[in-house]
Amino acid sequence: MMHHHSKMLPDGQRLHLQHGPIDLILGAEGERADVARAYRQAEAAFGGLLERLVAELPALRTAYQPACVFTDPLAQKMAAAVAPFASIFVTPMAAVAGCIADEICTKMVQNCDLKKAYVNNGGDISLYLNQGQSYCLGIVSDSDNPAIDMTARIGNTDPIRGIASSGWKGRSHSFGVADVVTVLASNSASADVAATLIANNVDPGHCPEVVRQPAQSLDPDTDLGQRLVTINVEKLSETQISKALKQGEKTAKQYVDQGLIHACAISLQGHTCIVGHIPGAGQIGQRSVNHLEGARV
């Protein structure tokens, strides 16, 4: 297997790590020596990571079972991340991007006096915030038109350290029709799993506007087997949009009530609903935003 690639981006501030399908952007702020040490530690932790996961792939692509035993610590963390959600079909692969972001962020900040740091794994983000620090995040409601529609400010005292997104247009297959589901949670792994499962449930029901195919016909190596995944969504009616969003809201509210996530924004064809509390939320775009009753925004 090829070695990973590592290079500083042209701004001289961020590090790019890439190996196969794993593509990370890292940022850190602090004294120059601490930032340099943090990046060295991140690269050291990144080396061999993909090979370790590949060795466990058959079990990682299987529906989660408590009895399943993993050897690699990162695979164990993936299984632990999906366990609270496993009342429905989910494999540990639902947590892979978020777990990698968390893992590299944790190793990056060890023994470094940083102000703040992040690891962005294709949109699944793990944060580190020292006292008094914060990050301002942009939330996009349509990946085909990636303008920032809403902002959130995550501070050191907020319980959020992970952000993840999912949807039928994303890198992974989805059962649902959500353009983008963005989840804020205590870590990126939990956010990753929740975003996937909430997006799966944003569904108007069987209708000609939604085209689905068996996942395995699109990707022979998928963990979804012959389950139908969305490949195209035409313009939906207001009634269909409302029905789909309510399905997603129901799942998101369940996860918020259970303490599995802190907040969620669900977007579909110009409409966005918010469940839970997004710290420092501000609306920028003109798309329709509806707040679920009881949400604090």
Tell me, what's the shape?
Answer: globular
End-to-end CA span: 47 Å
- Major sheet size, sense and barrel closure: 10 strands, mixed
Strand order of the largest sheet: 1-2-3-4-5-8-9-12-13-15
Number of domains: 2
Task: Return the string of H and E elements.
Answer: EEEHHHHHEEEEEEHEHEHEEEE
Low-pLDDT residue intervals, each spanning 5 or more residues: 291-297
Contiguous helical run count: 8
Tell me the Rg in angstroms.
Answer: 19 Å
Can you offer a commentary on this structure?
It contains eight helices and 15 strands. It has 297 residues and is of the alpha+beta class. It folds into two domains: 1-132, no CATH class; 133-297, no CATH class. A ten-stranded mixed sheet has the order 1-2-3-4-5-8-9-12-13-15, covered by helices on one side. Helix 1 packs across helix 5, helix 5 runs antiparallel to helix 6 and helix 6 (188-201) packs antiparallel against helix 8. The chain is globular, with a radius of gyration of 19 Å.
